[in-house]
Here is the input.
Amino acid sequence: MPLAVHILSLSVFALGTSEFMLTGLLQPISRDLDVTIPQAGLLVSAFAVGMVVGAPVLAAATLRLPRRTTLVALLAVFGLGQVAGALAPTYSLLFATRVVSALACAGFWAVGAAVAISLVPTSARARAMGIMVGGLSVANIVGVPAGAYLGQHAGWRSAFWAVAVMAAIGVVGVLLCVPHTRPATGADRPRLKREVGIYTDGQVWLAVATIALQAAATFALFAYLAPLLTDVSGLEEGWIPTVLALFGVGALVGTTVGGRIADGRLFPTMLLGTGATALVLALLALLAHSPVAAVGLSMLLGLTAFTCAPALNARMFEVAGAAPTLAGATATSSFNIGNTAGPWLGGQVIDAGWGYPAVAWTAAAVAALATGVVLWARALHHRDRGGPGSTVVAGVSPQREPTPTPGRGKVSDHPG
Here is the structure.
């Protein structure tokens, strides 16, 4: 495996840490900038909004640009966004820096995936994507808890400075290790006019809805996990990094298991993940006052939420196989639509005075709705193929020729 792929994974570690570390920093940010916890939670949504917009736009805008130059520019903008966030004197400016950083993050995901795949033979594409996306899993286990620890002991701004340093290391690594590559030209060049045709397929929109609902259910609770654990479960703030690390371990295990069982069993895996997530969230709502139960269920939430993530990615590539450029970007946007809506919805519940357990109940209802959408999509899938006994190879859409996708084999756990 080329060293450049590992450098991309290191960069993704920085991106993922920045995206999710705010979960452990809500309380210090709230106190320092004199805003409510729900307002601080919207900073998680701000990053997700930038990802929603940035993924398809930058995927299209950078098709003809030199890849290494694009990666360096996007990573530099991301790093400067972290510096601006560390220096931000007001909530509004911090919010703006989150959106800008997210735009750069989304662009890096889109271009970085293309570069990783271009550097290896077809038989090694899944492994290359697994290594690159593995940076996100490590971010959940190490980066996010470390950010929370820094925030508690050196101020929340120190976490932004740390991510900025990691971004700078990534820039140097890309310059030294990523070869000068250009996107495909001629007949192999992606054509957006052809690819946007996927949006006339109802199954694409059902896949979008499933991904968005599952992400919203997960992050409606995850965004406010720290205050739930301290205010309801009675844990000390010092326990928050440990619990976040346990969530990350659960996510890594879920991604690994889901990636192994998803091929050929997309719908069962999606139903397992969404249904189990709804159950875990409901149990968390019931048992939130027990510290032991809350900690254990937090880890289980990472496990169940990410078990279906590989299948969700693969399903998008299956129904949008004729549009390899926009399939990944659409999946990225779908995940981050949920990442945006979830914290907002949780904040509305808190502002209504219903309490943190009510956020878990609301998230459980959203996960149950995701399960319903999966059942709907499965029914249409079997109807279009003449019954439940028919089979479809992952990566092949109805009435389309088989299309190679980076989701074969071990499917990536998060599109970015």
